[in-house]
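[Meeting: bench + compute handoff]

Bench side (C.D.) handed over the final construct sequence. Compute side (W.E.) agreed to return the predicted structure before the next meeting so the bench team could plan truncations. Sequence as handed over:
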Amino acid sequence: MKEEVIQLIKQEAEAVANIPVTDQYEAAIRVIEERVHQNKGKLVASGMGKAGQIALNIATTFSSTGTPAVFLHPSDAQHGDLGVIQPNDVLLLISNSGKTREILELVNLADNLYENLPIIVITGNPDSDLAKLADAVLFTGNPDEVCTLGLTPSTSTTTMTVIGDVLVVLMMKKIGFTNEDYAKRHHGGYLGDKSRTQARLLQTKK
């Protein structure tokens, strides 16, 4: 059992290490900065199933680090929630196959509401119809799933999460996000206390 655990962790780690790094990351950060921080829009993240859970995580992490973001469920979008989208927003869409019907429909619905909203896509299929619609495509590398059936989103969602983390950190650096900024957005719990303590220490050193 121990050797099997080691092998599974190794496979996941290799998938992360092999995520392709291209200038598409720079393009994604440029779009987010322009739409959210210059034009006062927000990032709208969406995905279906497991990819949707990753999109929710990315949205909440962006919000807590200075980039306003929301999660929009692609099915709920068809029943009124599409109204959360505003003309200065940017879409962050996650689909491993790039063929997810609900996500492709969301693109059409959003375009009917506000034409030409910029789209960032995280996908395992850079040649998909979804990727062709995007302003920036972040490729996961399409790793094999560690699932014994090769079906359950596992390694693919690991790479999606890492790509989301990379975007968050790059944007934090781009906007100069500080401990004080974090403390204002995260009041409760251990992290809130830690961020306020760090902010006070930095103030005393000035």
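W.E. noted at the follow-up: The chain has a mean pLDDT of 92. C.D. will use this when planning the next construct.
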